[in-house]
Amino acid sequence: MTSRFELHQENLKKIFNPESVAIVGATKLKGTVPYDIVENILKSDFNGAVYPVSPREKHIASVKAYKYVIDIEDPVDLAIIVFPSAVAHMALEQCGQKGIKSVIIISAGYREIGEKGIEREAQIKEIAEKYDISFIGPNCLGVINTDPSVNLDASFARQMPDPGNIGFLSQSGALCTAVLDYARAKHIGFSKFISFGNKADISEIDLMFYLMKDEQTKVILLYLEEVSDGKALMNAAREVIAQSGKPILIIKSGRTSEGASAAASHTGSLAGSDEICDAAFEQAGILRCDNIEEMFNKAMAFAYQPPPRSNRVAIITNAGGPGVLTTDAAVKEGLEIARFSEETTKLLKRHLPSTANIKNPVDVIGDARADRYNAALTAITNDDAVDGIFVILTPQSMTNIDAIAEEIVKVAKETDKPIYTSFMGEADVASGIDILLRNKIPHYILPESMCKAFESDFRFHHKIKGHRFKPVKVEDVDKEAAAKVLEGALQSGRQVLEEDEAEIILGAYGLPVLKGGLAKSAEEAIEVAKRIGFPVAMKIMSDDIIHKFDTGGVILDVENEEAVGIKYQEILDNVKEKAPEAQIRGIWVTEMAHKGEEVILGIKRDAAFGPVIMFGLGGIFVEIFKDVKFRVAPLGETGAREMIESIKGHKLLAGARGKNPADTDSLVDCIYRLSQLAVDFPEIKELDVNPIIVYDEGNGCAVVDAKIMF
C-alpha cells in the first residue's frame, strides 16, 4: 500500500510540472485572487493548457471557461481551488471524481479562524484521502516554478521571480510577497517558490524531500511559524543534507514565549521552545537565521560561489578602517586571516603603490582604480594559502565603481575560490552593486554580514555536510526496576517523585547516586546515618517543595548522632515556618559528597521535539547564569561532549587557573544514560539532577540531588 509520503512525492511532480492546469473558482473581476492567478499563469508563458472553471462565466482572460471541473474534456494534471472555504470541499470532491491527484487550495477560512475552520480542514483532508489527492494549502499564496520548460506562476504574487537555484518554502503567504520583492531588487532568482499555508496535507517535510531531488535547486530556504513534528523535521533535514549535500536555512518565528506557564524544575524553566528549536536545528544540520536579510546573505554565498576549501581569507580594501573592521569580524567568526606567500607579496609590491599595505588586509589606497583592484585580486586568488577573498570598496571622488565591479566579475569567473564583496554606501555604489548581483557575486552592506555568511558556508561544507547521525544507545540499564518505581507513583496519583524514588531510577540507569535512606523520625535518621557513615547530608522530602534550600530544608556536613537528631527537628521547624502547607514525607539522609565542580543535568518533554536533555553549570547559580545547553534525545556519538564543551563555563571543567581537569568522560557517560532514560520513559515530563558533582579526572562524579516529574 502506498504511503501518504510516497503519494505526495509522486503527486508533487504534477504540481510543479503540469501539462494542464484548472483554476477552479475563477472570475472575471480584475484585482481579485481568482483572476490574478489566471492572469499570472497566462502571463508567465506557461507551457501547457489552462482551464478556468467558473459556474457563471463563458470566458475569462480570453480563455474558454467551464462550469464545473468535471466538464473539462481533457485530462487535468493540476487543480488550483480558489472558491471560498465554505464550498471549496465540493470543488475538491469534483477534482477527485475527475481523477485529478494534484491540487493547490488557495482559499483561506480554515483552522486559522477557529473551530469552524478546523471542521472544514478535516473535511478536505478526508476527501483528499478518499481520492488519493495531494494538496498544498489551504490558506496559501500558491507555487511558482521558474524552470523554462514549465514557466508556472500558480500564485497571486505581483511578479514572477527570475530563474535561480534557490528553493523557498514558506508557511506565510504574506511573507512570500515581501520576499519576492526583496529578492527582485537584489536580482536573486528561485528554482521553486512555495507557499504551503496551513500544511493540512503536504508539509514542509514533503517539500524538502522533493527539492532534495530537484536538479534546479541548490539551496533550500524555509520559513516556519510552527513545528508540528520536530523529530520528523530533524530526520528529514539530516537525510536531505546527507543525500543531496544541499544546505537548509530556516527562519522559525515565535522566538519569545510570552505567557508560557511556569515550569516545576530548573530544566523546565530554562528550556524554552526557542532554545529547544536552536538545539534541534543545530543537531539536524539546519542553519537557523534571525531574519530575511541574514537568510539571503547566507543563501547568496551558497548559491553563487564555490564552497571554501578552508577558513583562510584575504581582505582587499581601499580604506584602512573598513579593512580593520572586517578583520575583527572575520576573527570573531573563527576565520583565519591568511598569510601570503613570498610570490604573492612580490606581486603586490610590484603592482601597488609604495603607500599601499601589502599585508593582509591589503589596502590598495583610496585613489585606487580598477587596475589596482585587478592586480590585487589576481595575485591573491592564485595564492594557495588563500581560500576566500573579501573585496571592500568605499566611494572616493576618483573611484570608478562600475569598472571595479566589472573587474571583480572578470576575476571571479576565472577562479574556483569564493569572492564576496562589500561596496559600502548606498546611492553612489548602487550601479556597481547592481553589476555584482546580476553576475552572481554576493554583496553585503556590512562587512560583518559578509564574514557571517562565509563562516556558515565553511561550517556547512566542512562540519555538517557528510556527517551521519548515529544515536547512542545505552544497553546496561535496569529498565524494569525504573518502571516499577514509576508505575507505583502513577498508581498512587502523584506527579512528583521524591529524591529516594528518583535515585532508585537514576541508579537503575547507572548514574552515580549516593547511599541514603528515608527517615520519618529523628531515631530513624540516626540509624540511617550510622549505616552510611558520617558526615551526612539531610534534606526535606515533600512533593510541595521544589527548592529545598529556600525553605531551610537542607543541612550539610552533619557529623555525629547527636547532631542528626537536632538537625532533624531544625529542618522540620524551618519548613513549617516557610512552607506551612507543605505535606512532608520525611527527611532523606545521605552520604556527603566530596567537593568538586557542580553541574546540572535535566530532561524536559517538548511537545514538538520530544525528550530534551539539558546540561550546564549547576548548584544554586543555574537560574542566575543560565549557562546551559540543550540537545534532543537520543544524542549522537559526539553530542554529549559537544554539550559539555559548548557552555561558557567549560574552562572550569577543563582545568582553569591551574586546577586539575574534571572527569568529563564520566560526565559524558552520565549524559548518555540520562538520554536513554528520557527515550525509554516518555511519561517523564521534567527531571533535574542538580547538582551532580564532577571530581578530578579519573575520579568520576556523584548525584547529589534529583527530582522527577511526570
Describe it for me?
The protein is an alpha/beta fold. It folds into 4 domains: 250 residues, 3-Layer(aba) Sandwich (Rossmann fold), CATH 3.40.50.720; 159 residues, Succinyl-CoA synthetase domains (Rossmann fold); 78 residues, ATP-grasp fold, A domain (Dna Ligase, domain 1, 2-Layer Sandwich); 113 residues, ATP-grasp fold, B domain (D-amino Acid Aminotransferase, Chain A, domain 1), CATH 3.30.470. 40% of the residues lie in helices and 20% in strands. It is built from 24 helices and 30 strands. It has a 7-stranded mixed β-sheet with strand order 9-8-11-10-12-13-14, sandwiched between helices.
Evaluate the radius of gyration.
Answer: 32 Å
Give the integer mean of the pLDDT values.
Answer: 93
Tell me the number of structural domains: 4
Strand neighbour order, sheet with most strands: 9-8-11-10-12-13-14
Q: So, CATH architecture of the largest domain?
A: 3-Layer(aba) Sandwich
CATH class of the largest domain: Alpha Beta
- What is the CATH T-level topology of the largest domain? Rossmann fold
Task: Indicate the percent of residues in helices.
Answer: 40-55%
Brief summary:
By secondary structure, this protein is of the alpha/beta class. The chain contains 24 helices and 30 strands. It has four domains: 250 residues, Rossmann fold; 159 residues, Rossmann fold (3-Layer(aba) Sandwich); 78 residues, 2-Layer Sandwich (Dna Ligase, domain 1); 113 residues, ATP-grasp fold, B domain (D-amino Acid Aminotransferase, Chain A, domain 1, 2-Layer Sandwich), CATH 3.30.470.20.
